[in-house]
Write a structure and sequence with these properties.
Structural class: mainly alpha
Largest sheet: none
Number of domains: 1
Order of helices and strands: HHHHHH
Helix content: over 70%
Radius of gyration: 20 Å
Strand content: under 5%
Shape: elongated
């Protein structure tokens, strides 16, 4: 668990760095385009690559904090145990879906690696570097879902699990 949490923290730091880099890239490219008629070559490709870091690396950390979107309109009134069962089922479905996604993005990465695919443009940037980051981010999220599923099942069996608090409850606590 500690190792996974440590990897999550590193991933969030990398994603935050990518976000700052994207901001600087866009600002410098726009200034270069309008002041010197020289934007950064392949700035859109770099932006796409950085978006992979920004979106997929923090997924596991967000799941660990239970900050993903929950639709609770139908489960708000249920007792804790039933809420936990629904959440566990949701994690199970997510695990299956993201395992499939992990395999698919790995296959895409393997093809890009094997054929040394590149983006047609001034810099001819290779496609596999951001794809390996995508594989890592999605695989890390899949592992986090597996850990959460095991913990949830253990909590159900031992009757120690507590359902995720609703956004409304968290906001009310923050305001008080």
């Amino acid at each position: 668990m500690k190792t996974l949490s440590w990897i999550d923290r590193i991933s969030v730091v990398i994603a935050t760095t990518a976000l700052v880099s994207l901001m600087l890239l866009v600002c410098i490219s726009v200034l270069g385009r309008y002041l010197f008629a020289m934007p950064i070559p392949d700035d859109l490709v770099f932006s796409e690559y950085l978006m992979i870091f920004i979106v997929f690396l923090p997924l596991s950390s967000v799941q660990a904090a239970r900050e993903h979107v929950f639709v609770t309109i139908f489960t708000e009134w249920l007792p804790n145990r039933k809420k936990v069962i629904f959440e566990t089922f949701g994690v199970f479905v997510g695990l299956i879906a993201f395992f499939i996604v992990t395999v698919a993005v790995y296959d895409d990465f393997a093809d890009a690696w094997e054929f040394q695919s590149y983006v047609d443009g001034p810099l001819e940037l290779l496609e596999w570097p951001p794809k390996i980051v995508l594989v890592f981010g999605v695989a890390l999220f899949t592992v986090r879902l597996l850990v959460d599923l095991i913990q949830s099942i253990h909590g159900i069996v031992t009757d120690t699990a507590t359902a995720t608090r609703s956004e409304e409850d968290r906001v009310l606590d923050a305001e008080l």
